[in-house]
Amino acid sequence: MKYLTVDFGSTYTKLTAIDTEQGEVLGTASAFTTIETDVMEGFRNGMQKLEKKIGTFEYDRLLCCSSAAGGLKMVALGLVPELTAKAAKMAASSAGAKVVKTYSFEISQAEQEEIYEINPDLVLLCGGTDGGNKDVILANAKRLCQIKRNFSIIAAGNKTASYELAEIFKTTDKECVITENVMPQFNVININPAKQKIKDLFISRIIEAKGLTTVQKMSGYDIIPTPLAVLTGCELLSKGTGRDEGIGDLMAVDLGGATTDIYSMAKGDPTIAEVITKGLPEPYSKRTVEGDLGMRYSLTAMADEINMEVFSDELEIDQEKIEKWIKTCAAKPSTLPSNEEEAKIEQGLARNAVKVAVERHSGYFEPAFTPMGQVFTLTGKDLSDVPYVVGIGGSIINSSNPKRILSGAEKNASKDPMFAKPKSPNYMLDKKYIFASMGLLSTFEPKLALSIMKKEITKI
Predict the structure, then answer these.
(1) 66: number of CA atoms within 13 Å, CB side?
(2) Signal peptide location in the record (predicted)?
(3) Would you say 5 and 18 are in contact if contact means Cβ atoms under 8 Å apart?
(4) Where is 9: in which H helix or E strand?
(5) Of 299, 200, 94, 111, which is closest to residue 102 (Cα–Cα)?
(6) Contact 88, 78 (CB under 8 A)
(7) Which of 37, 127, 147, 278 has the most Cβ atoms closer than 10 angstroms to its Cβ?
(8) How confident is the model at residue 71 (pLDDT cuts 50, 70, 90)?
């Protein structure tokens, strides 16, 4: 059996040829994604490059994923920021969506206008435990229906409000789906039904919007969001199959031109004594996406997170040169470093993007005082003992010093003692960018996908 996997990315379309008899990747190739004209053009260009490397390749199965044109853009609405709003964001992120904004309580007119400007593909509407508050989710449903944009709505809130929600949705021409509550009881998470509905809507609606209808017909299998494919690959590498062991807990860092995605495969239980956990329970397989941390399309926003004076001193490069490089890359995303100094700036920016993204993903400790003395609270996952950090994405893979970039994920006890980041991880690299490919392959050949990842994703 021969497989061809294709990842239609925002910038590049990446192809991977796999032979099950040989049990290996025969070759990979990439070409610019041609979303503005016809994605098939980029696919054909990539196929030509692939066959120049490995010869004529006739595949038995074509498996595809996509984040083209920015991927699946979503906003999430909930009742309380730390509870249903967070659960909504968790469900959307785990389904492979790019969560642009999360809202809590009843949305205001200004927030309605903001959603209009965001123009999302999907809106995940949550709020209230089953039998609890239903006023907020009903009010928000009415306000979403008033927004003159063609987004779909998935309602995953208080089941007591389902009848009224169905009546409200009858007044709109938007596609609306009602599913199980993401938080049916206080501090109980139920994100899988919403995750499946997001995937279904991606297949039924987004494929056509992104021009992937022809590819869907060629494949005969569902095209899924790329981050969902990567998440599946990460989970397989971590857990393994029923008979074949994975490598255990890991963190994966996917640094792209528009976003930085962080994946953690770990329970995240506290690693130190005298800790009280706060907030919602975290899933073993967790993904977060940072839309303001990218190496090109969101480079200006990322630069705002950096103290430029300190950054300039660290690199021993004039601040003006750094700012000039950022402006050049933001204006022309195809810009690549042409000398050692530019490469050093690029590497420094990449490391900072990783640092900030991992801090947002990881849990954090805070001191708390009780009658028995000082203790600490932990909000989120404690990733201190995670043994592996895996680098994904062109900015890491193509760097002359990927380990330096990935070191941004590591805990610095003197500078960021409260973040529960990995303390002393081993660094690994997905040199051929096969995580998404193996996530797709695992649907049919999980044992082979695991074997290939163990061989191809190596320590640095």
Answers:
(1) 29
(2) none
(3) yes
(4) none
(5) 111
(6) yes
(7) 127
(8) low
Considering the entire predicted model, what is its pTM? 0.86
Distance CA(245)–CA(443), nearest Å, equals 17
Determine the Cα–Cα distance for residues 181 and 126; give it in Å rounded to an integer. Answer: 7
CB atoms within 10 A of CB 315: 17
Who's near 441: CB < 8 A, 6+ residues apart?
3, 5, 18, 63, 448, 449, 452
Identify the DSSP state of 297. Answer: T
Q: Where are the beta strands (DSSP E) in 156-245?
A: 176-178, 224-225
Partner residues linked to 25 by β-bridges: 18
Write out the E strands in 221-372: 224-225, 250-255, 260-265, 275-278, 285-290, 364-370
The average confidence (pLDDT) of the chain is 89
Contacts of 401 by beta carbon, 8 Å cutoff, 6+ apart: 347
Question: What pLDDT is recorded for position 129?
Answer: 92
H-helix or E-strand spanning residue 14: strand 12-19
Dihedral over Cα of 402, 408, 412, 415: its sign? positive
Taken in order of first residue, the domains within the chain and their CATH numbers are 2-69+205-244+434-456 (3.30.420.40), 73-204 (3.40.50.2300), 250-430 (no CATH)
Q: In what order do the strands lie in the sheet with 458-459?
A: 285-290, 260-265, 250-255, 388-392, 426-429, 458-459
Q: How many CB atoms lie within 10 A of CB 22?
A: 9
